[in-house]
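Z., the sequence and structure:
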Amino acid sequence: MKKYILSLFLGLTTLLQAQNTLSGKVTDANNNPLIGVSVYAAELNKSTTTDANGMFQLAELPNGELTLTFSFIGFLKQNKTIEKIQNVQKLDVILEETAFQMDEVIVSTPFTKLQSQNVMKVDRESVKTMQEKGTATLIEGLATIPGVSQISTGTSIGKPVIRGLSGNRVLVYTQGVRLENQQFGDEHGLGLNDAGVESVEVIKGPASLLYGSDALGGVLFFNPEKFALANTLQGDFGQRLFSNTLGSSTTLGLKTSTNNWKYLVRGAYNTQSDYKIPDGDRVTNTRFQEMDFKAGIGYSNAKFSSVLRYNYNNLDLGIPEDGVADQTTAKKPAFPKQGVYNNLFSLNNTLYFNNSKMDVNLGYIKNDRSEFEDSDVAVLHMILNTFDYNIKYYLPAIGKVETIVGVQGMSQENKNLAEEFLIPNAKTNDFGVFGTGIYDWGVNSLQAGLRFDYRHLISEENGILGQEGYFEALNKTYDSFNASLGYKTSFVEDLTIRLNAATGFKAPTLAELSSNGVHEGTFRYEIGNPNLKTEQNLQTDLDLEYKISHFEFSVSAFYNHIKDYIYASPTGVEIDGFQVYDYIQNNANLYGGEIAMHIHPHPLDWLHFETSFETVTGKLQSGGYLPQIPANNWNNTLKFDFTNNKWFQDGFATLNVSTTFSQDKVSGFDIPSDGYTLLNMGFEGKVKLGNTAFDVNLNGNNLLNKTYVPHLSRLASDGIPNIGINFILGVAFKF
């Protein structure tokens, strides 16, 4: 059957004559061939593996520069950049053994280097690793990365927070394009399903030079799953079950590739009941249902590479407003609730010239968001259409200097279709131009860049002056110059030092400029300010990394000054029983960092100990603290490796103790929170039954059934605890 389907795809494929073919052998330091080494050309979305003799071959390669990544479990990853591939027919590679597998290729920064070679510190985490921790949603997994947390509403809604900044200060990229989903609202979730996502890269700091407005606080860059190896057909199925919410998460994928063409499809379904708190009660209407579909088709040859991807996400989720009330295990959300539909198209292209190349990335997303009070008639219905483009030209290298220039922009339209308006009908247009370069010499790298951005926003007048829902017409323009400078070096062997300084900006959002009404999700009356200025910041980062065979230590520190920081402040006035919040501005400072250590003692090669600590403080320059700043966290994990070569492989067990400290450094309208410690355990391995191998994992989270209220929980004001003890069973296999 596999051969039949593969032959069908081959029959649809028009093959071109290969212009360049590269082959070689991959061995270890003792010249032993390595079998199954992954050889990946990210720009071409093309990959292969080494055979029984350690040999590999890639065809249809471009004439100019190409970077290949060689990766194998237990060995250091290597990037091999070939300047003139037409002059190279053979490439032999020697991989070095290591106890760690931490180095990854970073694609969210301009020059696609391994993290060890990157000037900017970027954290990369695979979705599989996050799922191994027993997380139910993608945002829960993100919150396990040091420096990243979430503003949550139970288990159904979560918004990412990077070093104390969230909302439109954190830009999300998926499938190579920006994700726009009305993220200004605290109750508006991420809007992504983890099925079909391979990994996430986290830039903790201003990335406005690379991405423009809304990247002032950082970027979450989600990498989609890779296509299948050339001339193969692959399928996979995964199922996870959750005891606390009586929930399940299912995914099914199929993909195939020829030398030139690539195809994939994936579906996922996630459903959860109201979550149970430690005393046994369920928090009413925290249930949700989610359907997700992804598809992709790609083509590459020696001249260009092109990938078209599509993602449809349908999310139906409840809005908890009654606390612990009706007790049910139903999956269908009750009123009030949200219905969110996302359609996302991305087209990623790379064009190859003799000594240079160009990336052309285009994206379109339609975000359809409705909120319902007590019937199927939406009280709020907003449609946000966004088209964005990102064009980068990689100039021919001049000696050891690499340079990129580019243009980037977005055209966005917001429409209201219901009687009530939270924000007006409006159109936004962004345009940016930038250039960045890197100079490498010895163990040193210097990277710098400049950028200019322009935003034009027009909104319509709506409603009756002086009444809820009235919006005056706006015609605003904003512009900003930004720059970045980074330096990486190794003063001594095994010690890497990074120092970065960058400016960033965020133009006021439509909600901050013009809100005038009660939001059904936040239960407060918000009033915008049309005179708000652009936020502008300067952040400095210092990162130290020390890494040897069985020990790794890193420390990162940052200081972030934000001019004209925008936030909602209570006025002390009520309208129809709802507290009124005005959007105002003040200068602000945020500072803190992360410390992490990983010990893999020899000869106890089966034992790992990982520990990390993260802290951030946010203050207004005029006095007082910023709202919604996460509490300090100390996370400790023991990992035990074990295996049985007959039927059980790659097994490990984990014991995790996560301590979140009390948070009393709060703004005048935040609520202080108490500290708490959670105990979690996990078990995972690969079970072999005949020719089929199953990945099995079992997690127990909050094993002591601790009653706790996270500081950034939107249910904290009502004293509603977070989820109690929860067991997660996962099974996945390939076919």
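The chain has a mean pLDDT of 90. The domain at 20-98 is CATH 2.60.40.1120 (Immunoglobulin-like).

Let me know what you think.
H.
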